[in-house]
Amino acid sequence: MKPASGCFGKPPRSDPCPDRNRGVATDSRDLRTAAMAWLDERPHERVDFAWLSTFEFDGLRVPLMDRQRGIRKPAGMDAALAIRTTFTPPGQTPPYADAIGPDGLQRYKYRGDDPSHPENVALRRAWQMKLPIMWFVGVEPGLYEPLYPVWVIGDSPQNLEFTLALDAAQRHFDATSVDLDEDYRSYMERLTKIRLHQRVFRTQVLLAYESHCAVCNLAHESLLDAAHIIADGQPDGLPVVPNGLAMCKIHHAAFDNRILGIRPDDLTLHIRQDILEEIDGPMLRHGLQEMHDRRLMRIPRSHAARPDQVRLEERYQEFLSA
Question: Spans of biased composition, class Basic and acidic residues (predicted)?
C-alpha cells in the first residue's frame, strides 16, 4: 500500500477539511474511480475515519467520510460520494432499519423523514446521474467494512428509503415490476447476501473472536471462516455474531458435516464416534480426534457476542441425530 499523503507535515490550516473551502470538480467520475482504486490498496481490510480522511485527488484532500453525517457529499459536488452505516452491538436495535426488500435488493433509509433533506437530495442525484458510490458499514465501534462500487437504483419517498445495487448484475433490475419472477428475485437476494450480509457477518465474527479459530486457536485470518450455528435461510439463521463461530476451514467443514458438535451446556467438543474409531493420518488424529472432549479454545470477550445457547442446543441435537 502506498502511504496516504494526507496533510501530515504541512502547515496547519484554518479548516481541517479543505474541500469545504475550494470544492472539488462537480461529480468527477475520475475522483470516484481514484477513490475506489485507493481503497483497493488499503493496508488493512477494515478502515476508520482517520484513514479515510487522508484521501487526496488532484492535490486536494477529500475525506471519504463525514464524522457526523451518514451521507457524504463533498463541497462542490452535486451527488453523494459515499454512505455510512454505524455499528450496532449484538443484541441492540440499529437506528435505521436497513434491510433486504421483497425484491431481494438492499434498502438504505433516508436521513430523517424529509425527502428534501440535502443529504437525501445528494443521494437521489447519484441515482439520477447513475454514479457509483462507496458504502462504509460499521463492524465495530469506529471501524468499517468498505463496500464498493454500489449504485442507487431506486427511490421510495413513501417508504423513506433508497434501493441499492451491490453487484453489477443488480444495476438494471426493475424493482417496480409487479410480475417478479421468483427465481430471479432469489438470485437478487443471494447476491445481496453475498456482497453485504455474509461479508459483514464474517468480519464481525472474526473481530469478536480476535481472528482465531474457536476450536483450535489457529490465528491465520485467510484460513478462517464465520460458521453459522443455525444455517443461513433457516429460522433464527440470521447473520449476527451470536449465531456465528470463527472456525478454520477444516473445523468449519467438520461442523457443517456433523462430524464435530458443540455441547451447549459447557462448550465442549464432541467428535462423531465413527470418526473417533477411524485410522488415518495426522490431520485426522490431531485436527479432529484429539479435539474430542476439549472445550472451545476461544470465545468472545463480550458476553453479548458469545454463541447463543438456544441456537447451540438446536444445532447439537442435529449433530446427535446424524
Answer: 12-28
Domain ranges for the chain, please list them. 19-153, 209-320
Is residue 226 within 8 Å of 246, Cβ to Cβ?
A: yes
The pLDDT tens digits for 285-321 are 999 999 999 999 999 999 999 999 999 999 999 999 9
Task: Please provide the size of the chain in residues.
Answer: 322
Pick the CATH number of 19-153 from 2.30.280, 1.10.287, 2.10.260, 1.10.357: 2.30.280
Cβ proximity of 111 and 100 under 8 Å: no
Q: What is the largest CA-CA distance in the chain?
A: 73
Cα–Cα distance for residue pair 309/288, rounded to 1 Å = 23
Q: Which pairs with CB-CB distance under 8 Å and at least 24 residues apart come from 149-153? A: 149/32, 149/36, 150/83, 151/126, 151/127, 152/108, 152/123, 152/124, 152/126, 152/127, 153/105, 153/127
**Rounded distance, CA 179 to CA 106, Å?**
19
Q: What is the pLDDT of residues 5-53, one digit of tens each?
A: 333 233 333 344 444 435 565 557 999 999 999 999 999 999 999 999 9
Query: What is the radius of gyration, based on Cα positions, of the chain?
Result: 23
pTM, 2 dp? 0.84
Cβ atoms 127, 110 nearer than 8 A: no
DSSP code per residue over 207-240: HHTTT--TTT----GGGEEEEESSPTTSTT--SS
- Non-local (6+) Cβ contacts of 172 within 8 A are 153
Nearest to 217, CA basis, from 287, 315, 273: 287
More confident residue, 94 or 247: 247
